[in-house]
């Protein structure tokens, strides 16, 4: 499905993950059912691994919902747009697992770990650094997975740090690992190990996956303004999907047949998304008044009535 | 019935909340062994242990951010912000993350977090120790903002805030912490006045004084003084700054035709303007005078040696009453 | 005279400010080579160099905090916050440090910093890209908060903000960025209308519509529609949200006796309530109806597919006018 | 004057620096006139080194002014109470010096450096970590001087970090130095070197001075609630003043005469402070309306008139 994911990356209705498939699928596949993950707007690969239907992912980008899927069901928090904020949520959630005695028991399926996914730019935000402080202070079972895709919109990673991002970890007293983000097997291995450390009560880890944002930051971005094609070429040659394909062919796991089948799968998924996307239902206007508070609120009820009256006039039901 | 101070009542309320719900956790700076700089959590770590009364690193955004994670896991964190002036580094986590989680997730996720904060001035301290940031939170949809003004409310409202499934900003009147009052702890949580209701403290027919937190005592004092001159002030403790209990306010102002809002925070953009606007909309024909405001001035909080001139006092309230009556 | 868009006018204004004062520096995320996500700083780094147009690390508190240091050194930093929804991590630096420096130092230190921010919704984008945080800043003493609504104001007001010795929150109406208008750049900065003054856009005798930023165009549209039915609306662009230009508002409402405040931000705790309260205090006997509010609702910003139902439109303004006239 | 400062520490009208004299005087003396410093509420020793009259320091603590001295005159920003906020101001100020061409010229007295003083607790705040990011990104001439006095009010340093605080530096790509904070000569030496690096354009440095808060956090704090006397004893034996005295005696710089004179100086200063403190004039009530904005503001003018009227009634002039 990595191939399928690449296709999705090419859909371009959103912040494309093109080039980062290995980092996301590799690490995402290392999570166990009882684990929990927090991601940014770019981690479609993680959502895929957590069982989210790509069509559902589109709800957020189309503007029909603020959160695209059921966080409880997939044990995956929705796309976080505020850079770095969720690193603290992940740390707190991990403290919860600890507090609930779901760490270091050794019982299979019982011990939990949490992963926070974010980018190279996020490493500069206070919240991410405070997350390192809290995670180490309580030795919480959290893994910080930083995809260094070389860019924060138009700013190269060196604007955020002159030293490797993984090095940041030592300073806070947690282990830092740097991995080839375009090697799906390596990403899986380091994440699995960090998760095991976390679940067994050995505390947090920071992983820096070095990769590259092949596409634009988002569909409204124009990379030609700030980067030349040279790097793109360099990294295209390191295409994680291509590397995996060759590897699997050598191992005789992937043959023409299977490839063709994958291609068909991908094509039909892409097709389904194209179709379903347009069919995603708009929320009812009055739903904008729901779930501000647990109970009802007089102000909001009055405002709902006001809009209801307008809709009735316009004949909207 | 026992007599205790507001801070003791907060402590007692926290203890009872922790006794009755094992998911309740306390987090903050210096709340453990020290029991908080005001001793609100005195003795709680000793009795409930270090993982239910958690001393945190010195980072407010981190405290609220991790509390959000703990709440997502299923706990009910009660966060102490040591002083009003230190809440701002956590602002993004409070107004963007905490306040909107229920809405953002269309009801799938909720964050029953209470953020306790001593607020208001008048304690003769240095910068950042006498602030009234309530309007920032009261104007943020998704947050409930309440303030207590006496031991009974301190005791019950903190428990209601913790029991609430919505995030609550719980404001404690710092300079009244040692004000004593009778407390009856025998009632049960559901039978006492809900925290989202305003409370009529003194009945009167001439003018309604609306206040909350530390200035409630000031309003009561003004009412006593006015009574001596035969002026009957009606005093209301707002208690819930957001959402507002307009019904209670409306009923009073429909009767008196006059209202004065009193708070320590600056006038401009404060709670007073919102209350005044709402009363103008709901009681237009009954208002005999404009709703007036007796508040802190539109400056940052001044040096403590002159703070008494900044804070509303009974005289300023009575001047405003006179002005209101003169319409 | 030339015709250009609001975003082009901002760009031109920034360029002129940098030309006329070498101490002016621009700071922000992606403002260099990219020229900002809205291209407000397009071409400026090329012409003024990397140390006058500074791409910063991704940390808003850091951007404002270092801007404060640069201002203490003697520079005039102009900070771009990429979107309204991303200003909150810098809240402490803005309301506690930036806003109070002059007061805290009894006038010895000043921070002539301008913080530019696109604000408001209606662009069909995701969460955090359609917010109206102005009330948080307008209720903070020490800050000046202004909003532009057309190319001419965008061009002159940004220069006035930069020239101001006070910190200024400069709000740009995101969804109107591509609205065109005639601009005369020949005048000089001191001769044009000061940014702290409200502007009378349309004269009318029946009801005053007070607005700012993106909803000014909405108010003008409502005025045109009302005129067709013979209702004469007076339209005022507030421009300065803090301090308020009450004189201009008062003069108008003394005449019309009716006022409606329009903004995208939620009603509760918004600018509308403060304006309404001030007008009630200053025009009590002249008000024929309560000041009304046509605003975003008291919820977080909704998903973009239904944002049009959240944002004030001409019809809602006209309904409010009808309601006001019915008193 | 270190002795005098100790006496001041004992004045106890404020956040005492007792035990941290060497760290403050040692580093404070390393600054040159053209340098600039930002401090917290506890750096009275730095203020002393920058020529601030101890009596003026009291204005802040007595509540007659928010800023105790003229920041421009002493090139020292007033006491910062918001933990960590000034680390960014210092970094920005250093960027200003760089921008003004006052770095790396080699001209004596021209090149500038900036020092930010803060404590162990401050190391957890997002602002301090963001300051490290900006300082390294621009290689700004700033020195971060962290006094690890073992406590943040009631919380021991290990609640903030399980590894030495100086180690934090590496992770951000700036050099980190750990120094005996009770050795005034060592503190002077490392600070002087870091300042030279900064002035000559070699970028920022983090210094961790390991010392101990002998007194209470502030005069309203009661340390017996959270720490036992054992540590106090341990550190009393390392009293920096005592160490300096012995050193100077061995070097025959300090003799009975000089000591007696210093003691007299200290005593008279202490006396002058006791007296002057009570005599510090209260600000005029109407001054609370000054300097909110550069120009005048209608609202504030009206409020000033309101208070003026009240004062007139009360007969206050
Ligand atoms: C607090 C905050 N500031 C600014 C932004 C605007 N913004 C969105 S993405 C982005 C760059 C993020 O870069 P990185 O962390 O490397 O993640 P990537 O986009 O490369 O996956 C910025 C500045 C934001 N969303 N949140
Ligand atoms: C942002 C902020 N949060 C909390 C406080 C309350 N507070 C004042 S001093 C202090 C401890 C500071 O410890 P440290 O940084 O080690 O400095 P020290 O007092 O030991 O010199 C705290 C928590 C504050 N002043 N500012
Ligand atoms: Mg990136
Ligand atoms: Mg300390």
Q: Tell me the number of strands of chain B.
A: 14
**How would you state the average pLDDT of chain A, rounded?**
92
Runs of chain B in which pLDDT lies below 50 for 5 or more consecutive residues are none
End-to-end Cα distance of chain A: 41 Å
Element order of chain A: H for helix, E for strand? HHEHHHHEHEEEHEHEHHHH
Indicate the structural class of chain B.
Answer: alpha/beta
Biggest beta sheet attributes of chain A: 5 strands, parallel
Rg of chain B from C-alpha positions?
19 Å
Helix content of chain A: 40-55%
Structural class of chain A: alpha/beta
Helix content of chain B: 25-40%
Entry summary:
Chain A has about 325 residues and is an alpha/beta fold. Helix content of chain A is about 45%, strand content about 10%. The relative contact order of chain A is 0.15.
Care to describe what's here?
The complex is a heterotetramer, with 2 copies of chain A (317 residues) and 2 copies of chain B (327 residues). Chain A is α/β, with parallel strands linked by helices and 317 residues long. In chain A, 46% of the residues lie in helices and 10% in strands. Chain A has a 5-stranded parallel β-sheet with strand order 1-2-3-7-6, with helices on both faces. Chain A is globular. Chain A starts with a helix and ends with a helix. Chain B is an alpha/beta fold and 327 residues long. In chain B, α10 links the parallel β13 and β14. In chain B, α1 runs parallel beside α7, α8 packs across α12 and α9 crosses α10. Chain B is globular. Chain B starts with a strand and ends with a helix. Chains A and B meet through α6 and α7 of A and α3, α4 and α5 of B. One thiamine diphosphate sits at the interface of chains D and B.
């Amino acid at each position: 499905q990595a191939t399928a994911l690449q296709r999705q990356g090419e859909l371009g209705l959103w912040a494309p993950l093109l080039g980062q498939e290995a980092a996301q699928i590799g690490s995402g596949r290392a999570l166990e059912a009882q684990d929990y993950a927090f991601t940014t707007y770019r981690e479609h690969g993680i959502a895929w691994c957590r069982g989210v239907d790509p069509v559902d992912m589109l709800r957020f980008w189309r503007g029909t919902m603020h959160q695209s899927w059921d966080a409880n069901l997939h044990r995956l928090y929705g796309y976080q747009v505020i850079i770095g904020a969720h690193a603290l949520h992940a740390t707190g959630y991990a403290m919860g697992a600890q507090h609930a005695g779901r760490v270091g028991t050794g019982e299979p399926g019982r011990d939990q770990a949490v992963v926070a996914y974010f980018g190279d730019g996020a490493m500069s935000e206070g919240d991410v650094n405070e997350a390192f402080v809290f995670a180490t202070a309580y030795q919480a079972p959290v893994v910080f997975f930083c995809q260094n895709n070389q860019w924060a919109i138009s700013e190269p990673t060196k604007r955020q740090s002159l030293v490797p991002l993984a090095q940041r970890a030592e300073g806070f007293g947690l282990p830092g690992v740097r991995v080839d983000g375009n090697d799906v097997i390596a990403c899986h291995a380091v994440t699995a190990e960090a998760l095991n450390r976390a679940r067994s009560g050995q505390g947090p880890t920071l992983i820096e996956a070095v990769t590259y944002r092949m596409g634009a930051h988002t569909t409204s971005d124009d990379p030609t303004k700030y980067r030349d094609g040279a790097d793109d070429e360099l990294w295209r040659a390191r295409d994680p999907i291509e590397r995996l394909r060759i590897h699997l062919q050598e191992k005789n796991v992937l043959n023409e047949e299977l490839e063709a089948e994958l291609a068909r799968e991908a094509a039909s998924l892409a097709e389904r998304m194209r179709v379903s996307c347009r069919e995603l239902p708009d929320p009812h206007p009055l739903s904008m008044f729901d779930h501000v508070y647990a109970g009802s609120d007089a102000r909001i009820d009055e405002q709902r009535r006001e809009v209801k009256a307008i809709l009735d006039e316009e004949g909207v039901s | 019935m026992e007599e205790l101070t507001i801070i003791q009542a907060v402590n007692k309320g926290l203890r009872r909340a922790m006794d009755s719900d094992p998911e309740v956790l306390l987090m903050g700076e210096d709340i453990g062994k020290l029991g908080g700089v005001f001793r609100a959590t005195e003795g709680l770590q000793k009795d409930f242990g270090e993982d239910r009364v958690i001393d945190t690193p010195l980072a407010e955004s981190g405290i609220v951010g991790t509390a959000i994670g703990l709440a997502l896991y299923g706990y009910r964190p009660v966060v102490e912000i040591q002083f009003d002036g230190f809440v701002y580094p956590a602002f993004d986590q409070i107004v963007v993350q905490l306040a909107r989680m229920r809405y953002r997730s269309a009801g799938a996720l909720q964050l029953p977090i209470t953020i306790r904060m001593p607020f208001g001035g008048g304690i003769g301290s240095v910068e950042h120790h006498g602030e009234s940031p309530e309007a920032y939170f009261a104007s943020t949809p998704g947050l409930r903002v309440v303030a207590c003004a006496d031991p009974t409310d301190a005791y019950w409202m903190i428990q209601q805030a913790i029991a609430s499934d919505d995030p609550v900003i719980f404001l404690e009147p710092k300079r009244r912490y040692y004000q004593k009052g009778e407390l009856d702890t025998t009632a049960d949580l559901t039978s006492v006045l809900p925290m989202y209701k305003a409370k009529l403290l003194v009945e009167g027919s001439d003018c309604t004084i609306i206040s909350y937190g530390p200035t409630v005592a000031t309003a009561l004092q003004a009412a006593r003084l006015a009574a001596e001159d035969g002026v009957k002030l009606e005093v209301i403790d707002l208690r819930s700054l957001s959402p507002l209990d307009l019904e209670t306010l409306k009923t009073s102002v429909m009767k008196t035709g006059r209202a004065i809002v009193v708070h320590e925070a600056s006038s401009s953009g404060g709670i007073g303007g919102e209350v005044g606007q709402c009363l103008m909309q709901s009681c237009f024909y009954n208002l005999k005078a404009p709703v007036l405001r007796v508040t802190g001035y539109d400056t940052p909080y001044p040096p403590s040696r002159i703070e008494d001139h900044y804070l509303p006092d009974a005289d300023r309230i009575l001047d405003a009453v006179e002005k209101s009556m003169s319409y």
